């Protein structure tokens, strides 16, 4: 049996031919100098190949409880008695599809190769979410001095109308360095 939710979900999604990428706090941790604890795994799915109902069936067979968390079915909230919690987000926008295409492959030990959203796309999605923990993740990433394509981020934060927050964070970061 898999040791964690990411390993189990990755194996299942791969077996169903569903392309996915790691996002959320676990993805942000790959770009921070010190990781933060998180209670769940967040994955962005490219499409559902076999369909939403088939995915839900397969998840339930693996011991996951599944709840559709949105009326349009783009977010599945999962719980497993041994492996914990996960959110599966089905890419529903052109931007989310682009983020998946841009994802890079990284080896995560026993899990093997994992598609990981780029630092830019992690920043953009965290800006869109805008919660306190997301802003803290953005600050930690900026402080880690990971190279960021600010032009790319700037285009998307303008599109998603979160540019003022991005500019404030960039200003704070530049003031500190």
Number of domains: 1
Strand order of the largest sheet: 1-2-5-4-3
Question: Count the helices. How many?
Answer: 8
CATH architecture: 2-Layer Sandwich
Assign the CATH class.
Alpha Beta
Please give the share of residues in helix. 40-55%
SS content category: alpha+beta
Q: Which radius of gyration do the C-alpha atoms yield?
A: 16 Å
What proportion of the residues form beta strands (DSSP E)?
Answer: 15-25%
- How many β-strand runs? 7
Query: Ends: how far apart?
Result: 46 Å
Tell me the series of helices and strands, N- to C-terminal: HEHEHEEEHEEHHHH
**Model regions low in confidence, pLDDT < 50 over at least 5 residues:** none
> Averaging pLDDT over every residue, what do you get?
89
CATH topology: Beta Polymerase, domain 2
* Sheet having the most strands: 5 strands, mixed
Which overall shape is indicated by the principal axes computed on the Cα atoms? globular
Structure, described:
There is one protein chain. With 177 residues, this protein is α+β, with helices and mostly antiparallel strands. The chain has a single domain (5-176), classed as Beta Polymerase, domain 2, CATH 3.30.460. The chain is built from eight helices and seven strands. The chain has helices at 5-15, 24-29, 52-61, 94-102, 119-129, 132-143, 150-159, 163-176; strands spanning 20-23, 40-45, 65-68, 75-80, 84-90, 104-107, 113-116. Strands 1-2-5-4-3 form a five-stranded mixed beta sheet. The radius of gyration is 16 Å and the shape is globular. The model has no long low-confidence stretch (mean pLDDT 89).
């Amino acid at each position: 049996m898999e040791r964690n939710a990411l390993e189990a979900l990755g194996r299942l999604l791969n077996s169903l031919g569903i392309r996915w990428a790691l996002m959320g706090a676990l993805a942000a941790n790959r770009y921070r100098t010190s990781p933060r604890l998180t209670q769940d795994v967040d994955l962005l799915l490219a499409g559902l190949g076999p369909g939403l109902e088939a995915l839900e069936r397969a998840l339930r067979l693996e011991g996951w409880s599944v709840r559709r968390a949105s009326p349009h079915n783009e977010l599945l909230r999962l719980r497993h008695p041994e492996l914990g919690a996960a959110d599966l987000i089905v890419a529903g926008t052109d931007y989310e599809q682009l983020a998946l295409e841009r994802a890079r492959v990284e080896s995560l030990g026993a899990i093997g190769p994992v598609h990981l959203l780029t630092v830019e796309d992690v920043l953009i999605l965290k800006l869109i979410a805008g919660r306190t923990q997301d802003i803290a993740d953005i600050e930690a990433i900026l402080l880690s001095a990971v190279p960021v394509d600010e032009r790319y981020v700037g285009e998307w934060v303008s599109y998603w109308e979160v540019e003022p927050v991005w500019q404030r964070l960039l200003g704070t970061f530049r003031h500190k360095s």
